[in-house]
Amino acid sequence: MATISPVQRGLEDVVALESRICFIDGHEGRLIYQGYDIRELAARSTFEEVAYLLWYGRLPTATQLAELRARFGALRPLPPPVVDLIRRMPTDATPMDVLRTTVSALALFEPEEGKPGASSIGGAQRLTAALPTILGVFHRHRTGMPDLAPRPDLSQAAYLLYALLDRDPTELDARAVDVALILHADHELNASTFAARVTASTLSDLYSAVTSAVGTLKGPLHGGANERVMEMLDEIGTPDRAEAVVHQKLAQHERIMGFGHRVYKVEDPRATILREWSRRIGEERGNTAYFEMLRKVEEVVHREKGLYPNVDLYSGSIYSLLGIPHDLFTPIFAASRVSGWTAHVLEEYQDLRLIRPTAKYVGPTDLAYVPIQDRPG
Questions:
Q1: What digits encode the pLDDT tens for the residues 179-214?
Q2: Which domain holds residue 286?
Q3: pTM for this predicted structure
Q4: Are residues 285 and 189 in the same domain?
Q5: Annotated catalytic, 222?
Q6: Is 240 a catalytic residue?
Q7: In this structure, are 340 and 251 located in the same domain?
Q8: Long-range contacts of 283-286 (CB under 8 A, 24+ apart)
Q9: Which of 37, 222, 302, 326 is an active site residue?
Q10: 261 included as an active-site residue
């Protein structure tokens, strides 16, 4: 029998491919997009610049950035049959189900992606532009808000807020979401990105790959942790109760969401940045309760378990203060990560090899077939 390598559960520490898109240094707490540190990108760039960087491997010139912004504005409107499809969906549908179904349907109206294996930066731009529209059309449908206007004058972050809240955001609010989109744009071979690359490795089309990614992100072990964080804060209620509630949860062996990471052995650099934005938005709103509770939770969890916060700990508090419903947190994650998903899919097409790992079989190999009439009842 052939020798089988030791099983790495969850493919932990298995190097599956080479990529130029994203690098994580889990011991130093660094996240790099195409050579640029996430701290500098979050401080100085925009989501549009980062999307361009992920796709093309370089920062855009002023002209290229203006062209991409115009392209996003032009690609935001959905084909009328797709809008009609969303409006026919149940108003109590899970937004991630709506997003998965609509991304798949959108492929039918994308001529550049009309045949299996088609590879197109245009499709990547179309999906990145369209995801906020999909969320806006559905959320307005279920809440009875007015129909969504295209608004090509707005940045992706500002448009996302407008689509969901039906108001032009303040400069600070738009910048907070812009930073969040930058921080969530890519994260190497996370589960949803890997799912997208596996799909692309079969030479399937871009939309199928992104549909796979959305379905993977829907799983609560990948997306949705920031929703669970906000549920915990609702349970805590006030900062003075934070320590007691966390101790109780730890005593009951409950997992405290927003802490720990498969790759980072120190604090997630995205958490460091979002912590400051949680404070800023809380102070601007005159409501720092979320921030104060999270700081106390962070203190207790680190003291008791030695765990550091990850990207999910603070993002939900920012979205909540902006007025965004909890069930839209993971779809917003997708509206950012689609730029990274598509960058990885396009990279996969350039270095194509079917992704097909091996399983270690642990079942029997010598069972004898028993005729059905002789099998015990």
A1: 999 999 999 999 999 999 999 999 999 999 999 999
A2: 225-322
A3: 0.93
A4: no
A5: yes
A6: no
A7: no
A8: 284/172, 285/321
A9: 222
A10: yes
